Every structure is written in C-alpha cells, then in structure tokens.
Amino acid sequence: xxxxxxxxxxxxxxxxxxxxxxxxxxxxxxxxxxxxxxxxxxxxxxxxxxxxxxxxxxxxxxxxxxxxxxxxxxxxxxxxxxxxxxxxxxxxxxxxxxxxxxxxxxxxxxxxxxxxxxxxxxxxxxxxxxxxxxxxxxxxxxxxxxxxxxxxxxxxxxxxxxxxxxxxxxxxxxxxxxxxxxxxxxxxxxxxxxxxxxxxxxxxxxxxxxxxxxxxxxxxxxxxxxxxxxxxxxxxxxxxxxxxxxxxxxxxxxxxxxxxxxxxxxxxxxxxxxxxxxxxxxxxxxxxxxxxxxxxxxxxxxxxxxxxxxxxxxxxxxxxxxxxxxxxxxxxxxxxxxxxx
Length: 341
Hints:
- It is a single chain.
- This protein is an alpha+beta fold.
- The protein has one domain (2-335).
- The protein is 34% helix and 18% strand.
- It has eleven helices and 13 strands.
- The protein has helices at residues 26-33, 60-70, 82-94, 97-106, 149-158, 180-197, 205-211, 259-268, 280-296, 321-324, 327-335; strands at 2-3, 6-7, 76-77, 107-114, 120-127, 130-140, 161-162, 168-173, 225-227, 230-231, 254-255, 302-307, 310-315.
- It is globular and about 60 Å long.
C-alpha cells in the first residue's frame, strides 16, 4: 500500500506511541491533492457499481506514478480476460462482509499491472471536498491470477532470502484449491478496513500525520507492539532486522542458510508470517488473511524449511499459542461490522 511518497514496503521509521495526538496536516493534504493519483476527481468512480466492474485499465498517469515510485519503467497495464474477470468476481464475493462493504464504499478502481514487483498495494485517494474520508485504489500483480496459493506464497517468501545454499529450501503449503488472488484480496482488503475503521493505531505514520490520528493503542496492538515497527521486546527477534521482500529495498540481506533461527522464533511467537512481523499494519493484514483461509475456508498453512530434501523445521503458524490468543479479535474482524473491539 502507498500514501503520498511513503510506502509500507519501504518500512520507514515511525513515531512511537505518545499521549498527544497530532493535528491534521493541511499542508501535506494540499500537496497530495495536487497529484492526480491521490485526487478523487481524477477517477470519476461509481460507488454503486459491482466491485468486479471496477477493474479498469490502469491510466497512464497512474502507471507513470508507479514507475517513478519503484524506479521500474517496465510497469504496464494488463487487460483482464473474461476468465480473469470471472475469477475476480467469485473471489470478491468470498471476502468477509466487512471487507466487501468497505470496498463498495471506498474502492475507486482496481488495476492489474504487468511486471509489478509485489503482490498488490492499496493506495490512498483524497476528496478535496470531504477531508474526513479516505478513498482507495487497489493495484494487483496479474501473476496472482495464474498461481495457486502455495506456489505464490512460496515465491513471495523466497524473495526475502539470498540463495547462498542450493541445498536449502523454504516452501509454503497453503493448499491448491484457490489462486493467490484470494490471499492478496484478503490481505489488501484488511488494510482497507484498517484505513477506514482503525484496527491498528494507524496504517502508516504518514496517514497519522494526514488525519491527525491519536497514537493510542488498539485491542489488536495492545501488549504486542510498542511502536509501528517495534514489537514488545519479548516478541522481537534479531533476524527481523534483515527481513525485506520483493527486492524493493535492494538485494535481500537475509541468507536462506540463516533463516532457520528466524522460523524457530516465528513458530513460537504471535506473528503468522515473517511479513507480518514487519509492522503492526502487516501483522493485522497477514493475521486476518490466514485466519480466514484456515478457519473459514479450511485451507492448510504450513511453513517447511528443509535441507537436502529433509525437513529441518515444519510448523503451522496458526497453531502457535500466542497466535491463538488473538483469534477472538480476528473472529470479530471477520464476522463483525468493522467496529474494532
């Protein structure tokens, strides 16, 4: 997801929790509205239209914004096929009701972008006539249409590591019943709910600045996070400092031969994935996505670290006692009206 010139992918430093709430930054807001990718009048959305019909060919101004942001001139619009459209409609209908409702009310457009370096992002759009609301654009990598959950999650996971040892392999088993599109709709859809209903203190520090949000803890973060990117010390682990994905921060700094220790920490901690350990917004998005996949759709979720074909560690993150402590909150997110506990 992105906001102005700041992306969650970059994992920039954030303010720690403080008692005083900032005031909305009118100058920052005015600056964002100068850019078409963040101004609602650039899109002419129809919020009464079915969600699947909001798929559009990415306009040139948006593609250029993405190319500049990620310094990748190869980004190009992908035109969905009738089969793609049908799959998207089917998966949108499977999402929790709260995600569907937020999408109906706030989702401006869905763009599929070829050569996109991530899985997806949720980007912020502002209405110059209504400073209280945030609207959203969803960008998706078309490869999530054509890879099943296990294949895509394994591919994503391995972007975290440099392959210094060809005998070591990391695999994610999330079943083969669904395409990766479902996972990323759940993940990004949870970010959307978070933007609108604030299940975490703020989705990004820049979003806090924009809307003047108080940095008070929420039920989801209380006791688990001491700051946006800083878990409570008992749940932190040293390997987190080397975690990055998709090569967006340069080459991976994490050797796959050194990853076993990180997974051992993960297996005993409160986070459902390495990606979810990066900050509290990704923690929420990953937790909700995998809770829905495992508990509602009855799909497996297992991480296997092996060497020379022999598993050295095999575990299901949803079986962690600390992860299970958060299930009541996730159940409310999946089945509720969006109001945080």
